[in-house]
Amino acid sequence: VTATTVTDASGNYSFIGLPPGTYVICQAVLPISWWQSAPMDGPVCAASGNLGYSRTVSTDQPGVRFLGNDFGNVPL
């Protein structure tokens, strides 16, 4: 499954209705002249080479919420 979303004005984002499985959450677009400072560990995102978050959705936890999947960016 590949899904995309955008953040709201406060930087919040969500994915709704994902089937069970393990997902890597990646920041797809990094602002020009910025460096991704968070997360500092995790799986490597194929498209960007930056790090992401791995989260597992299971059938016994419908509607599960994962908090703290924030990406940090700082200017170069």
CA-CA gap between termini: 33 Å
Please describe the biggest sheet, giving its number of strands, its sense, and whether it closes into a barrel. 2 strands, antiparallel
The count of DSSP E runs of length 2 or more, i.e. the number of strands, is 4
What percentage of residues falls in helices of 4 or more residues?
under 10%
Q: How would you sum up this structure, described in words?
A:
It is built from no helices and 4 strands. The chain is mainly β. The N and C termini lie far apart (33 Å). The protein has a two-stranded antiparallel sheet. A two-stranded antiparallel ribbon has the order 2-4.
Quick recap of the structure?
The protein is mainly beta. Helices cover 0% and strands 25% of the residues.
